[in-house]
Automatic annotation (TrEMBL), chain A:
Protein name, per record: ABC transporter ATP-binding protein
Leader sequence segment: none
UniProt keyword list: ATP-binding, Nucleotide-binding
InterPro entries listed in its UniProt record: AAA+_ATPase, ABC_carbohydrate_import_ATPase, ABC_transporter-like_ATP-bd, P-loop_NTPase
Organism name: Pararhizobium antarcticum
From TrEMBL, chain B:
GO molecular function, one term: transmembrane transporter activity
Species for this entry: Pararhizobium antarcticum
Keywords, sorted A to Z: Cell inner membrane, Cell membrane, Membrane, Sugar transport, Transmembrane, Transmembrane helix, Transport
Ranges annotated as spanning the membrane: 23-45, 57-78, 85-103, 109-132, 139-157, 177-201, 213-235, 266-288, 300-333, 345-365
Record has Transmembrane as a keyword: yes
Protein name: Xylose transport system permease protein XylH
Subcellular location as annotated: Cell membrane
InterPro entries: ABC_transp_permease (IPR001851)
Membrane topology: Multi-pass membrane protein
Purpose: Part of the binding-protein-dependent transport system for D-xylose. Probably responsible for the translocation of the substrate across the membrane.
Residue ranges the record marks as coiled coil: none
Amino acid sequence: MESHLTPLIQMKDIEKHFGSVIALAGVSVDLFAGECHCLLGDNGAGKSTFIKTMSGVYKPTKGEIMFEGRPMNFADPRDAISAGIATVHQHLAMIPLMSVSRNFFMGNEPLRKVGPMKFFDHDFANRVTMEEMRKMGINLRGPDQAVGTLSGGERQTVAIARAVYFGAKVLILDEPTSALGVRQTANVLSTIDKVRKQGIGVVFITHNVRHAMAVGDRFTVLNRGKTVGTAKRGDIAPEELQDLMAGGQELAALESSLGGTV
Amino acid sequence: MTETPALHQSDERIKSRSRFREALIVPELGGICGTILVFTFFLLTAHESGMFNAAGVLNWSVVSAQFMIIAVGACLLMIAGEFDLSVGSMIGFAGMMIAIFSVNMGWPMWIAILVAFALCVATGALNGWICVKTGLPSFIVTLASLFILRGLTIFLPQTLENKTIIGGIREAAEGDWLAPVFGGKVLTGLFQWFGEIGLIATFERGVNKGMPVVDGIPMLIVWALVLVAFGHVLLTKTRFGNWIFASGGDAESARNSGVPVNRVKIMMFMFTAFCATVFATCQVIEFGSAGADRGLLKEFEAIIAVVIGGALLTGGYGSVLGAALGALIFGVVQQGLFFAGVESSLFRVFLGIILLFAVVLNTYIRRIITGEK
């Protein structure tokens, strides 16, 4: 990928120990603006620990994080958020009983001054919400539609649209497609594609190779807390990725017995 | 992955809803229906009893206003995801403190009132702080406050005066500048004029001969209306209102989005305590005395009014206007049964039944909103 550019984020030889447990034993990943970097790994590979380190929740035990060319030390997640690193978690920071527009601006409410008083600017919030959701290809019944009535994929999209609207440069998506049906997944993947085209760097965590192949520019495979390798799109076949994820041989044996259905 | 071109095409998976059904999905639905029902009922059964002449209207308005004052606090707190069971005890406690400060200790009334407010709001803050810090359900924490405050309200006057009712507050409030804010009346001139032009009845005998039977709007009603308006605007039109909904809807998600959930909850506990103290102050100045049993069961009545008003017991959803309607229903029914000559114990039966209906209706509305099965 564009090697002449500085990566948005560069994580070098990140190690993270929890007491005697070594969760990460040297993970290196970099991310450029406008690319979708897929982070693949089986359960327990260290994906979650790694993204939590990237988003400021954990401090690495060893290793270096460079953000826009400068070494970075996040004290807490809010630091990371204000620097432009947004995480869309598996459970979503969305409140089902509240309207989409109230959710969209939760914690960042737009204000309108009336004399000395400041009020929630509902007109602005409603307009922006409808507009941003339309850009992502979701037609709401109205900005006051409750989030609870949206499907899982649509909720992911609201969360992504919200992060993008509030100026994310790096968007970390933690298994956004893991609980979704086929069509919902397609919608979320198309959202990722749109976000990438706006020049935002997307870290897409998944253990589904097909989802990764659909939108990824580069693929990094984690296994047992280490980077197994990074490959560009077109340099690697889905089967190889699958093998790397599961640590090769064992899965190959299993797969043949299952008739290639995994 | 291709772009989805259909921008203005409606989604075929969303069933279109009729405008009527849409209009039904508001938290105030139960309150509105209940209000219409209750007024229709009493207009038919009690219209000859004087319930709807000036004195009668004032009578149930005052009772409704009392319910409204505590319902506003309980409503915002419930939407923020917490309960306060100590409201009733706090009413008794606040009134008793005002009486002790002003009558026993001889402080000027305004200082007594302000100190009582400070004490109660601080107790509210403590309630909230304990809930937030320990993560214990507010149900338990405020149940403790219910007993502690009630115990103190009985213990203090007994130790100081050897009785459980302290009188003489009206005399102590004489000439005070703050007391009329709670115990006074407004628009007395207007009502005088209403009496003169015969719009409302006047006394025909006695010392008040020629005076209108209703000589003004009690400050209690003004407080109720101001608090309802304040609560409604705060909840629906401000950033803080959004935080109240968010804190009650899902505290964890709200925190993830940068909402100061703990602060919101503690402030709502303080506001509930403030409302209880307003209630208590109006009451002691009107009665001229403070009793150790004042405010008994008020916490539950406040919660029932809020639930009739459409708020969910689980938090995150509700309406101050709905709670005000719930309070109005309460006041009208409680006094209406009296006017209609019905045994007043039936009021409790009515409460229980209407509460059950309200909760069922709210659950149904919640399912429509969130699409749960």
